[in-house]
Structures are given as C-alpha cells and as structure tokens.
Design brief:
Blueprint lengths: L2 E14 L8 H8 L8 E14 L10 H16 L2 E2 H4 L9 H5 L20 H16 L4 E9 L5 E4 L3
Parallel strand pairs: 1-3
Antiparallel strand pairs: 1-2, 2-4, 4-5
Helix pairs in contact: 2-5
Pathway: Cofactor biosynthesis; tetrahydrobiopterin biosynthesis; tetrahydrobiopterin from 7,8-dihydroneopterin triphosphate: step 1/3
Keywords: Lyase, Metal-binding, Tetrahydrobiopterin biosynthesis, Zinc
GO molecular function, one term: 6-pyruvoyltetrahydropterin synthase activity
Length: 163
C-alpha cells in the first residue's frame, strides 16, 4: 500500500519569556536579549502537524483531517491559544531558581516565581510539547505522528520528529 503524508495547519497566539532557570539573570539577558523581557512578548504562531501512513484504498486518505483538526484543537490549541506559555501551560510552568533569586543584578529580573519557566518556552521546546500532547492521540496501526513544525515568525521555525 502506498505511504502518504497529510499535514494540518493551525494558528494560535501566545506570549512567553525566554528564560532558563539554569542561567543567571545576566546570562539570560545576554543569551535571549529582548526576548528575556520580564513582562513577556508574544507571537502569532503557525503550527503544522504531519501524519505518515498508508493511503487507505477505500477513502483515499491517510487519516481523516477533520478528526486531526479536532484532536489538535482539544489537545493543543485549547491549552496554548491566547495564553502565556510560562504561566498558563503546566509543561512550561515552574518556580524561580535560587540562582535567579540570589543574583544581585536582578534589575528587571524575575522576582515573581511564576514568571520563570522550569523549561524555557523556546519554539523548539514548544514543538516537543505539541508532540507529547498529540503522539498518543494520533498514533494508530494505520498512521502515526511524523512531524511537528512551528513557525514563530516569518523567519524563525523549529521542527520536531520525536527523536
């Protein structure tokens, strides 16, 4: 049976702050620059979810795209759309590290423990999060999750294939 790929495109808006609790405030500012703004910043993300599988000879489809749309809505978009990834999404939410709190150069830093993610909400980690949300929902004996791509801007994107 022929193998095919089907991709669903969705969009969502979310805010976040690029910040690693493993780094000092100064290191975070140097690494993430304006994206380390303690008040966050936002993106209009474009999400692409690709399934790989046999093209069903009866339906002509790898998978029912309407069902894929529903799964993405329930397991991803409802969790991230118009949210602050660092505050509202459990996967990224965390506490400020002792290193952050003890940094004497904390001007503009993270004094509110809710503002420091335990996992930096980079576009790469956002792809991993989406994969983890969808993998069990879409893998069947006929098709499986093949790729998650997220475009953060027209110039920046990341891809995760479960590796």
């Amino acid at each position: 049976m022929p193998i095919g790929y089907i991709t669903r495109k969705e969009t969502f808006c979310a805010a976040h702050r690029l910040h690693s609790p493993a780094l000092s405030i100064a290191e975070n500012i140097e690494l993430y620059q304006k994206c380390n703004n303690p008040n966050s910043h936002g993106h209009n993300y474009t999400l692409f979810v690709t399934l790989r599988g046999e093209i069903n000879p009866l339906t002509g489809m790898v998978a029912n795209i309407a069902e894929l749309k529903r799964i993405i809505q329930v397991h991803v978009l409802d969790l991230v759309d118009h949210k602050n990834l660092d505050l509202d999404v459990e996967y990224f939410r965390g506490k400020a590290s002792a290193k952050d709190n003890s940094d004497s150069n904390n001007a503009g830093g993270c004094e509110d423990s809710k503002a420091t993610p335990s996992i930096p909400s980079t576009v790469e980690n956002l792809c991993v999060f989406v994969w983890s949300q969808l993998q069990a929902q879409v893998n069947t004996d006929k098709y499986s999750l093949y790729k998650v791509e997220i475009r953060e801007t027209d110039k920046n994107s990341a891809v995760y294939k479960g590796e």
